[in-house]
Amino acid sequence: MTYVIAQPCVDIKDRACVTECPVDCIYEGSRTLYINPEECVDCHACEPVCPVEAIFYEDDLPPDWAHYLAVNAEYFTAAAPEPRRPRDTVGDHPLVAALPPQSLSKKEISVFTARKEEAADADLWFPS
User: What is the pTM of this model?
Assistant: First the structure.
């Protein structure tokens, strides 16, 4: 079993999950992030930190995004013959590459990345 990154990540790529992942199994494509199913240890660290709620346990994928299980796996099987793809590999799965630009921007989700208390504390250190 593995975790899967679905469509809400496309054109957002917040990367909080990359920082949180203890086994470095999350890789960056041009428009989205991908979880390598062979390296994922099902630790659940990535799911709660995703501000756009794009990460799902494979059994919990919504029906509209169920195909992202194959998208994540195929991204790595189409890779070069070496067993592990390098980080920041350019390109995306053909399905992701064919999607129109997603409308949500990082600025619209930034309110989810920090609690009010954290934002207030940051203002003390970084005044406008």
Answer: 0.73
